[in-house]
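Field reference: sequence -> structure
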Amino acid sequence: MKISVTIALMSGLVIAAVNCKKNDNNAIPPSPPAEKEVSLQTNATLGKYLVDKQNHALYFFSNDPNGQDSCTGGCQAIWPIFNIDNLTTDNLGDGLTISDFGSVISVSGKKQVTYKGWPLYYYAPVVNGTNTQEAPGQTLGDGVGNVFFVAKPDYTIMMVNAQLVGHDTKSYKSDYTEGIGKTTYFTDDRGVTLYTFTLDSSNNNNFTKPDFSNDNVWPIYQTDKIVVPSILDKTKFGSIDVFGKTQLTYNGWPLYYFGQDGQTRGFNKGISFPHPGIFPVPGPGFTQAPR
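Structure field:
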């Protein structure tokens, strides 16, 4: 009797083991990780920058201050647009956030991916008479024309090249006289315009009140991080303490936003408030602040 029970138990175990093995064989294998359509690459000189899945560098264009593609004519062949139809959290590399990405319709009528509001481009210079995309790992497009720069995730300063239009709706030139003509100036990483105050002195903010009651008019640009386009001299940037808050400076000039610009990229209304030239926009050739 005991022998029969033992045999029955052993048979049950064998059947269970076989069934378990069959179930393992029929199990659905895990899905492979999603291919990273956009990720970060690191360069000893440039630091971190965005690349596609084949390690091609992606670029920003300074002439896109309002977040719209302005690469027209022959520019389009040299700087092809970058687009991915289904960009998700799963196909982004580490250190990138899906909310920083968006899209616009390019001048060619095609969808173009944006990062922090900047349309993204490839670089395809003319080689032997033909536009040829630069090789994976190359960043030859950085600094071209002083208007194209690798797309970095951590810029604290960007450059734009745009028409100045004051809060009075009048167009101004770089000398703050009325007229048409683009000016090169600094913005933050999302294209929001930065300003200086002519009554400030070197590394001294003479505008902001101790209680920050006027900060809504000209908010200080709060950061001490200096990540700038490669053509700029990083040593000209610094930071100061303003009643317990840190304000970025350029050539000793404290940097501000203009409240009426809000966080709208491309606006530069402050250049005429309260009068043209009182709060000028800083750029690469901006002079040293007086002591």
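Note: The longest strand covers residues 158-165.
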